[in-house]
Design a protein that fits this description.
Layout lengths: L7 E10 L2 E10 L5 E5 L6 H8 L7 E6 L2 E2 L5 H6 L2 E3 L12 H7 L6 H5 L5 H14 L14 H13 L5 E5 L7 H16 L3 E5 L3 H7 L2 E6 L2 E6 L1 H6 L1 H8 L2
Parallel strand pairs: 3-8, 3-9, 6-7, 7-8
Antiparallel strand pairs: 1-2, 1-4, 4-5, 9-10
Helix pairs in contact: 3-6, 5-6
The structure holds adenosine-5'-triphosphate.
Adenosine-5'-triphosphate (ATP) binds next to strand 2 and helix 1.
Length: about 250
């Protein structure tokens, strides 16, 4: 695939909440095999855009194309099944399940009832342990998720997303609320996962993280992209400075 080919593309995507136009005709193409960053001032529509791509909310207009197929009105589950995994701004895990159980319920094939009955697929357990090891939290597999630190919960959420073997991973504020040492660990994990062939789209307010980690940065303002390019170019773009400074 060429450098500019894109498996995820949106065309004229729009969504209003009451009178607020949160996403306004956004046409965006991700770079395949790259770490794409999505930045923009507060309220510029980044989270809404994420939710539109992953089927959590439906657009008023426009389309989401994944690998050339229109997935605009597909359910979040179907979209995840097609190869798009995502994490949430406020980490989403099951607090009363153990770490390992959280990993197993992340796989659709393992039903909660079977899990509670002690029926576990050996292959899935091995895969779960593999991802927990990659995240460095394998020693916590029997702990209840609610007893993990917030940073460890974020790693668990990412590990659970990886159980579905997504080709494209969307991270919603991975650095939010985590300490600097863990941010470094998340950056190096994302780099490794990217080197293995996964494409990323990362929404993040931590500019150092975005500029240091991303290959391609898309800047939103008022619900649509106003600039994009490598971090060095975006950083110098007068339109971006204007959007952030609000002048
Ligand atoms: N469920 C909702 N109901 C009403 N308004 C909403 C809703 N979700 C988002 N909005 C509004 O839409 C606009 C875009 O919000 P969104 O959360 O997508 O922006 P954002 O760029 O992710 O912001 P932040 O960087 O602060 O997380 C904002 O004005 C917000 O108040």
């Amino acid at each position: 695939m060429s450098d500019t080919a894109s498996s995820l593309r949106t065309e004229g995507l729009s969504k209003s909440f009451g009178g607020v136009l949160a996403v306004d005709g956004a046409t965006v193409e991700l770079r395949d095999g790259k770490i794409n960053g999505l930045i923009g001032p507060n309220g510029s529509g980044k989270t809404t855009f994420f939710n539109l791509i992953t089927g959590m909310i439906k657009p008023d207009a426009g389309r989401v194309l994944y690998r050339g197929r229109d997935i605009t009105r597909h359910s979040p589950h179907r979209i995840a099944h097609a190869g798009l995994g995502r994490t949430f701004q406020l980490c989403r895990i099951f607090p009363r399940l153990t770490v390992l159980e959280n990993m197993l319920v992340a796989v659709r094939r393992t039903r909660l009832r079977e899990l509670l009955a002690g029926l576990r697929d050996k292959g899935e357990v091995e895969r779960a342990r593999h991802w927990l090891r990659r995240m460095g939290i394998e020693h916590l597999e029997d702990a209840e998720a609610r007893d993990l630190s917030y940073g460890q919960q974020k790693l668990l959420e990412l590990a659970a997303v990886l159980m579905a073997e997504p080709e494209l991973v969307l991270l919603d504020e991975p650095a939010g609320g985590v300490n600097p040492a863990l941010i470094d660990r998340i950056v190096s994990l994302v780099r490794d996962l990217n080197a293995e062939g996964r494409t990323f789209l990362v929404v993040e307010h931590n500019m150092d993280m975005v500029m240091g980690m991303c290959d391609h940065v898309i800047v939103f303002d008022r619900g649509a992209p106003i600039a994009e390019g490598p971090p060095s170019a975006v950083r110098e773009d007068p339109k971006v400075l204007e959007a952030y400074l609000g002048v």
